[in-house]
């Protein structure tokens, strides 16, 4: 017997669960179908982000950083620790507890907002019709006025390095190691690769990252990418650029990897190998044979400005519709599509979506890079100030990195902000708000920032755009 809903959401990751909650808040009878199972084969809401990505990785990043600091930095603060030991099982248990609390929180939010949750798979049959299959294989039909696809993305697999979920793993498997690999290889040095590499390097692994492109983190502004590369290599990460893996074979106790770098061929052996070369849209078995939904040339679901697909009444949001593949971008799309269905006129400014890499130092940016501003033909000015000039950073013992603000030379509107240093994941949010309101660098320069705070470096960088920083020598002016 079929079930009737106003809205059916397929996927309970950041885009999907937010879309379902907002639709329910707006008075729509809403169902959400999700097939994720945790390591114990129990249904778990939250998608990749909460179960196998953003949240567990940040939990391990925090734990591993504390372990590293206890070994190498506490003594400088006068904190004497006779012997620092690692209990990886306890660390993993804590990570799993954080995940469990947050995924359980979504279930509570569904209940509080009146969203009906179904564990299993959803398949679009036609406009307004979804086939639901539970984990036991039992099928049902859901009829709905609106269908929202939020099926997310999955790790890109490589034929030359097939996953065996033991020696060769994806990013989820890399979060579940029960022992620290002595030698760890990672294919890909993007934000996922360097975050995972940082975790296991701090815990004692000898980490090598093999990146096919010749530039480190090309999505970032060149100045912070250069500083990040220098910092990560100094920490012990062996980042090999222009290294194209040609073969990887898992053995009983190791993985042999072959790669080319320039004209040279290399062969190396690792205890474990992580494949972190990006993600692709998850559309497998999402559409029944007769459901014609157009995809673009990269396999993403094609949508218009209102997130409508080519199939009437069917919408799509989040990773499945394309870059940037960021949880917060998907969340806002989830809210937006629900409000569109309710007859409202919401808006997302895709030019002001922040990006963050949660390494130490952290990297964060919003808006255009200097190269993008230059390519657009804009005349611009730059204010760049290091954290070394900041009192709070010195007190923290984390004075590496800098803040860089790019502003239009004529209007002074802020075009891009790029940061590397302590807690820049939080500092960048001020600039997201500023750019959403089209602030100038002078606006930031004239706002009082608390002292001593890391935010003062943002203030100084804004002053530096006009060549007048207070706590850092101004750039030499041309006569």
Automatic annotation (TrEMBL):
Disulfide bonds: 49-54
Catalytic activity, EC: 1.8.1.4
Binding residue positions for FAD: 58, 122, 319, 325-328
Lineage, opening ranks: Bacteria, Pseudomonadati, Pseudomonadota, Gammaproteobacteria, Salinisphaerales
Protein name: Dihydrolipoyl dehydrogenase
Gene Ontology MF term list: dihydrolipoyl dehydrogenase (NADH) activity; flavin adenine dinucleotide binding
Boundaries of every FAD/NAD(P)-binding domain copy: 5-334
Leftover remarks: The active site is a redox-active disulfide bond.
Keywords: Cytoplasm, Disulfide bond, FAD, Flavoprotein, NAD, Nucleotide-binding, Oxidoreductase, Redox-active center
Cofactor note: Binds 1 FAD per subunit.
Main location class: cytoplasm
GO CC annotations on file: cytoplasm
Signal peptide start-end: none
A GO biological-process term: 2-oxoglutarate metabolic process
Domain Pyridine nucleotide-disulphide oxidoreductase dimerisation: 353-462
Active site (record annotation): 451
Cofactors (names): FAD
Entry binding sites for NAD(+): 188-195, 211, 278
Annotated Pfam families: Pyr_redox_2, Pyr_redox_dim
Compartments, record wording: Cytoplasm
């Amino acid at each position: 017997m079929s079930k009737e809903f106003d809205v059916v959401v397929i996927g309970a990751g950041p885009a999907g669960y937010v879309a379902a909650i907002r639709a329910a808040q707006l008075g729509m009878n809403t169902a959400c179908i999700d097939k994720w199972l945790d390591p114990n084969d129990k249904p778990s809401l939250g998608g990749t982000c909460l179960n196998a990505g953003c949240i567990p990785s940040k939990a391990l990043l925090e734990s591993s950083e504390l372990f590293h600091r206890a070994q190498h930095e506490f003594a400088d603060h006068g904190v004497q620790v006779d012997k620092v030991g690692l209990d990886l099982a306890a660390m993993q248990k804590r990570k799993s507890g954080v995940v469990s609390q947050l995924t359980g929180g979504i279930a509570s939010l569904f209940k509080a907002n009146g969203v009906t949750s179904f564990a299993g798979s959803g398949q679009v049959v036609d406009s307004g019709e979804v086939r639901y299959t539970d984990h036991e294989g039992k099928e049902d039909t859901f009829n709905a006025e609106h269908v929202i696809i939020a099926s997310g993305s999955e790790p890109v697999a490589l034929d030359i390095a097939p996953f065996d979920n033991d020696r060769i793993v994806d990013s989820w498997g890399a979060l579940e190691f029960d022992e620290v690999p002595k030698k760890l290889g990672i294919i890909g040095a993007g934000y996922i690769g360097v975050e995972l590499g940082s975790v296991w390097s701090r815990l004692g692994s000898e980490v090598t990252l093999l990146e096919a492109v010749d530039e480190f983190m090309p999505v970032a502004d060149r100045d912070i990418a250069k500083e990040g590369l220098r910092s990560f290599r100094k920490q012990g990460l062996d980042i090999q650029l222009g290294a194209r893996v040609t073969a990887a074979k898992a053995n009983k106790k190791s993985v042999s990897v072959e790669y080319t770098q320039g004209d040279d061929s290399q062969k190396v052996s690792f205890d474990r190998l992580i494949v972190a070369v990006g993600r692709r849209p998850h559309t497998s078995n999402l559409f029944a044979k007769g459901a014609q939904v157009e995809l673009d040339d990269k396999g993403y679901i094609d949508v218009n400005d209102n997130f409508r697909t080519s199939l009437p009444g069917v919408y799509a949001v989040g990773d499945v519709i394309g870059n940037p593949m960021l949880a917060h971008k998907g969340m806002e799309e989830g809210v937006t599509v629900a409000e569109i269905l309710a007859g409202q006129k919401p808006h997302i400014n895709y030019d002001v979506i922040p990006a963050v890499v949660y390494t130490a130092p952290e990297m964060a940016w919003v808006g255009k890079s200097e190269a993008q501003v230059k390519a657009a033909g804009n005349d611009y000015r730059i204010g760049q100030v290091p954290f070394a000039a900041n009192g709070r950073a010195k007190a923290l013992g984390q004075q590496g990195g800098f803040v860089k603000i790019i502003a239009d030379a004529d209007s002074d509107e802020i075009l891009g902000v790029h940061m590397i240093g302590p807690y820049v994941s939080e500092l960048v949010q001020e600039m997201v708000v500023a750019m959403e309101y089209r602030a100038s660098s002078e606006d930031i320069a004239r706002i009082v920032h608390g002292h001593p705070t890391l935010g003062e470096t943002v203030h100084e960088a804004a002053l530096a755009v006009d060549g007048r920083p207070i706590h850092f020598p101004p750039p030499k002016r041309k006569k």
